[in-house]
Amino acid sequence: MIKNEWIEKGFIDEPVHLPEGCVSEEEFLKAEIRKLCHEKDAIILAHYYTKKEIQEIADFIGDSLALARKAANTDAKIMVMCGVHFMAETCKILSPEKTVIVPDLNAGCSLADSCKAEDLKKYKDEHPGYKVVSYVNTTAAVKALTDVVVTSGNAKKVIDSFPQDEKLIFGPDYNLGNYINSVTGRKMLLWQGGCHVHERFSVEEIIKLKKQYPEAVVMAHLECKAPVLAAADVKGSTATMLTYAQEHPEVKEFIVATESGILHEMERTCPDRHFYPVPPEISEGSVGCSCNECEYMKMNSLRKIYHSLKNEWPQVEVDEAVRVEALKPIQRMLELS
């Protein structure tokens, strides 16, 4: 869990006093957020996994690779990163002169938490001669120990840039690394980390949906376990799945195994298609739900964006020595992508 003075002072999702005649809080907040962006020369970046109302007011939405590219190229003075903490760190690493704001500093990432910098350093010391490939879902400190960063969208391309006999450590997502090993024939050493959302998908739940919708194309994120990927017709990043749906109008139904926030953009850009989210695997005796959500992504809200933009906090900072080292593997990724 991330802590700083703002959290200790009790940063909360405060209510907003609506002016007379305003139809709804959502309408008011959206208008005020856009007004503040204009006044402060700010840009709102949002991941596909955030709530639909946040995607609707964002200047740019995308997956981790697209957000990193936008962060590197924007002219805006302020960036509001609506996603999780490592994404905001990436923005600051790429644009240290800009103010980077997050609506909620507690919006972390289970995958990033699974790999601590001190643990990775120890592992590197135990494996001399190995280069480190780190998934973008990592802290700035881990990136600083890394040779090149990857996303699920470019991992194979980046790995293919290394000689076949290169000794590689891949982390922290075991499932993604295992998939890349399987399609490249490599034997990378894999960190034992995983995304708590994608780990919850199961083949059994996909089979149930497939019986209901036999003509549906199954799409799965590369952070899913190997059996789930084996059951998928389309395997890839969030952007890969979205693009596939957009480019295949003849397919009318899709079963989607990734965080359910992506369904908003899929339905917006493909209104004549049907998208069915794969529910999480539910343990016996528990109450199920129809979708699989990341509670960290859902910490972002219109209220928090409004308050953080209005007050220009909480801001994300990265130690300069760490930032300089973390920048190198990110730049290499962007060059290779």
Architecture overview:
Mean pLDDT is 91; it is low at 1-12 and 283-289. Helix 2 (25-40) runs parallel beside helix 15 and helix 13 runs parallel beside helix 14. The protein has helices spanning 5-8, 25-40, 52-57, 64-73, 85-94, 110-113, 117-126, 140-143, 155-160, 174-184, 203-212, 226-230, 238-247, 262-269, 302-311, 320-336; strands spanning 42-47, 60-62, 78-82, 99-101, 131-135, 148-150, 168-171, 189-190, 217-221, 234-236, 253-257, 274-277. The protein starts with a helix and ends with a helix. 42% of the residues lie in helices and 14% in strands. The longest helix is centred in the C-terminal third of the chain and has 17 residues, at 320-336. It is an alpha/beta fold and 337 residues long.
Q: Order of strands side by side in the largest beta sheet?
A: 2-1-3-4
Q: What is the radius of gyration computed over CA atoms, rounded to a whole number of angstroms?
A: 20 Å
Total of DSSP H or I helical runs spanning 4+ residues: 16
Sheet with most strands: 4 strands, parallel
- Taking all residues together, what is the mean pLDDT? 91
Amino- and carboxy-terminal Cα gap: 32 Å
The percent range for helix content is 40-55%
Helix and strand composition category: alpha/beta
* Content of β-strand: 5-15%
